[in-house]
Write a structure and sequence with these properties.
10-stranded mixed β-sheet, 8-stranded parallel barrel, alpha/beta, 33 strands
Length: 643
């Protein structure tokens, strides 16, 4: 790192020294609360909008329960959550400032207040202009006349943001002190680029450019900190594979270039803003075909961009990777997590949108359903520490914007009469942000739906810092669906209207502590009779997949699990999942040390979708055998073992 780069950053550092971090404190509740769950529901027709229904009492499990069972298990933990939200873009700031002071504060409370509103807890802020700007031309924070350079960053300024954006950010942090801020540039200043333009082009391949760009980003972090808005995360480039000419700032930034900037930015932030962590990539789950087409002939399209970046020398400076929703599937997040389990995953952009001729009722319904299964549940079940939409507010025309999307929607819409209304995204984010607090940990829960839509119940569960549980459930089907929620030996049944989204919460209570620990089946394999390659789906720890006999039930059919090594357990869950009626009418549970000599440890009559068998054993092999007959198929979504 050169002394010149240090001097450039230090010029903006002095005013930021001494800024204290904010910490949320949660008071412990006295006594044990009752074993009941509260529930809030949003329906596709809008008749219920985050409507709190009557509380639901937990009871003992009922024999013969025909429902799919959502088993919530805090003994298995996944990622820690940072928050949920959107972006106060230049356009969002402009439309919010069209409101009267009173109405604007009402909107801000509706968005950020954890008690009276959505409790938005994560904002992703553009560094300079994006497609959603109210200005007549695009801008960076260091603009100079065409053909000139500003190597000393003498023209650097956040004056534009001080007019409207920063006052709103400070108010948001007042309302929710746990709010996290992420910063993302849509383009470096034009003078750092090959085409001397904010639109299209790429970063000039020059060590001096990499250094001054890293200094530019660090100056932004320090300037925002000095303005009362510390930055928790930063990325180097929004959508680095999108270098298209779409009328708004973009930059094609290949892996090697992003890595070079990060290798300079990391040490700078460690010195000047240690709280600010770098996140890589910030683009789609999969490389969009249009982005592949735009790659110059002979160059690698880098469809494994985040993998290359994390494997590069820059990887040590990265907290993890950010993803967007515009191509691919959230399962890409889990694939990356499995390859780099020490690195975090953040989901950072997805805009609500609609067809030009769609009615408001139509795009409310369609947005609620798609965002519920794909963003609210799909991203968080795939290791995302955040779920973030795009604009937090737009006007009734979906603007203002300068290039880019002309059918986008925000969490709220500012109307011509000086009021604001809430959109489907307000509720899909709110069903998380109101109830899942920063620092919450995702915990295990059986979920039967898929992001591609299969008409089943889909869910995700969290344990909050105060010990309470939040369970977010979406009924993918158009018809009402009944399911059972099970937590530590207590259950309740619930029916959700078609397409609806719900959040259930319950406080810490000793009645939910059954002392069982869910064991990992990683490395386990499975075989079956009738033989099927799908046998592995019963041990993939994903209840949305299943093995099925594919024929009427008859004695002798089995599913056999090889645990790869002897395992001691005291419960086996035999879960037929969402395929209602496909449970074994009678069964036998056997174990073996060598896969040849078997001993029966339990048997019984099947009466519903989930059978919990309490039987202690230590074995490498476990076999569930069907001992009855039925015209129904026999299916297994999950075999689970508990110690």
């Amino acid at each position: 790192m050169t002394r010149q780069v240090l001097r450039l950053v230090a010029a903006g550092a002095a005013v930021a020294m001494g800024m204290a971090g904010l910490a949320g404190v949660t008071a412990a509740q006295a006594g044990e609360p009752a074993a009941t769950a509260r529930v809030w529901v949003t329906t596709v027709d809008g008749t219920e909008l985050m409507h709190e229904r009557a509380q639901v009492p937990f009871g003992r499990p009922v024999a013969g329960n025909p429902n799919p069972v959502v088993t919530v298990d805090p003994s298995r933990e996944y990622q820690t959550m940072d928050g949920f939200g959107a972006s106060i873009t230049d356009s969002s700031a402009a439309v919010l400032h069209r409101l009267s002071a009173g109405e604007r504060d009402k909107a801000m409370r509706a968005l950020f207040d954890p008690e009276q509103g959505d409790g938005v807890s994560f904002l992703r802020q553009p560094v300079g202009s994006s497609d959603f700007t109210a200005e007549s031309s695009h801008y960076s924070l260091d603009d100079v006349p065409a053909g000139q350079k500003d190597w000393t960053l003498s023209k650097f300024s956040i004056a534009h943001d001080q007019q409207r954006i920063l006052p709103l950010l400070r108010r948001a942090k007042q309302l929710n002190p746990q709010l996290k801020i992420m910063a993302t540039p849509w383009s470096p200043p034009a003078w750092m680029k090959t085409n001397d333009s904010l639109v299209g082009g790429s970063l000039i391949d020059d060590p001096k450019i990499y250094a001054v760009y890293a200094a530019y980003l660090t100056r932004f972090v320090l300037a925002y900190t000095a303005a009362g808005v510390p930055v928790d995360y930063i990325t180097v480039q929004n959508e680095p594979q999108n270098g298209g000419q779409n009328g708004y700032p973009t930059t094609a930034m290949r892996v090697a270039q992003e890595a070079k900037v990060i290798e300079i930015l990391g040490p700078l932030l460690r010195i000047f803003s240690p709280r600010t962590k770098i996140i890589g990539y910030d683009h789609n789950w999969a490389t969009h075909p249009n982005d592949v087409v735009n790659v110059p002939p002979g160059q690698d399209p880098e469809t494994d961009y985040p993998y290359q970046l994390l494997r590069s020398p820059a990887g040590k400076w990265l907290a993890g990777t950010a993803y967007h929703c515009y191509y691919g599937d959230p399962a890409a997040q889990t694939a990356l997590h499995d390859a780099f389990p020490a690195k975090g995953i953040w989901f950072t952009e997805c805009s609500g949108s609609h067809g030009a001729s769609d009615t408001p009722a139509q795009f409310f319904r369609d947005t609620l359903k798609w965002h519920a299964r794909t963003i609210a549940i799909g991203t968080t079940r795939n290791w995302a520490k955040s779920a973030v939409n795009w604009n937090i507010a737009l006007d009734a025309t979906g603007g203002p914007h300068l290039g880019g999307c002309d059918t986008c929607t925000g969490l709220i819409t500012v109307q011509p009469d000086g009021t604001f209304t809430t959109n489907a995204e307000y509720y899909t984010i709110g069903h998380l942000s109101r109830f899942v607090k920063p620092g919450a940990v995702r915990i295990a829960s059986t979920s039967f739906g898929t992001t591609g839509w299969n008409g089943q119940i889909m869910d995700v569960a969290f344990r909050n810092p105060d010990g309470s549980t939040a369970l977010v459930v979406h009924n993918e089907n158009d018809d009402p669906r009944t399911f059972t929620v099970a937590a530590g030996g207590r259950t309740f049944d619930y029916t959700l209207p078609g397409g609806s989204l719900a959040t259930f919460t319950w406080p810490r209570n000793r009645v939910f502590d059954d002392g069982l620990k869910l064991l990992s089946l990683k490395g386990a394999t499975a075989t079956s009779l009738p033989a099927s390659a799908d046998a592995k789906l019963a041990v993939d720890e994903d209840a949305s997949t299943r093995w099925s006999a594919g024929q009427a039930q008859e004695p002798g059919q089995y599913l056999q699990v090889d645990l790869a090594a002897p395992v001691r357990f005291r419960r086996v869950a035999i879960d037929s999942g969402g395929s209602v009626g496909d449970y074994a009418r009678s069964w036998q549970l056997s174990v073996s040390d060598d896969g040849s000599s078997w001993r029966v440890i339990a048997s019984g009559t099947g009466t519903g979708q989930l059978t919990n068998v309490d039987a202690q054993a230590r074995a490498r092999y476990v076999r569930v055998t069907n001992t009855g007959s039925s015209g129904s198929w026999w299916s297994l979504a999950d075999i689970r073992l508990y110690a």
